[in-house]
What we know:
The protein has 196 residues and is mainly α.
Amino acid sequence: MVFLWVLAISLCYFLGSLPSAHLVSNRKGFDPTQSGSGNPGATNVLRLVGRRAGILVLLADFSKGSIAAAIGLLIDDTSLGLTCWLASVLGHVFPITRKFRGGKGVATGAGGCWVLFPLVGGLCTVGFLLVAKISKKVSVASISIAMLMPLCVGLFESDLEELFAALSLSILILVRHRANFKRLLKGSEHSLGTGE
Length: 196
C-alpha cells in the first residue's frame, strides 16, 4: 500500500504539472509566461488568445485536480484523495519540468474540491462567479474563494484532516496572489479583459 501511495502521489504531481496553458497558447504563437501577466493560467490565456482558449485551459486545469482527487479515492481512501489533490496543485504551482514556475492553483484546486467536497465546490463556484461579476476582477474572486473554501469545509465537514488540507491549499493560493494583493492596494489591478 505504501508503494501505491507513493506512485499515486507522484503521478498526481506530474499530472498537475502538465503545461495546459502552454499547450493551448503556443498553438497561437504565445508563451503565457512571457506575455500578458506572465501567469500560465486560464485568465491570462483568455486575454492573450481568446475565450475559447481560456475555457480550454480552465477545463484542463480543473480536470487535473478532479482526476487526482478521484485517483486517490479509488486507490485507497479520503486521506489519499486529499494528498493526491494537494500533489496535483503543487505540480501545477511548482512544476519541476518548468523550473518550479507554474500557475496559481485556483482551477486545479477547484477541481479536487468538487470531487472531495461537492457541496463546498458548488458554493465556492457560485461565490466565485458572483464576486467576479461584481468586482470585474478574477483575482478578487480567486482570493475571496481561497478564504471561503476552508470556512465552508470547517462548517460542513467534521474531519480535521480535511480542514487542514483545505487550509493548506488556501494559504498556498493566497501566497501565489501576493502580486495581485499589491496591485489591489495600489488600485492598479487589472479588470477582466486587460491582464491579471
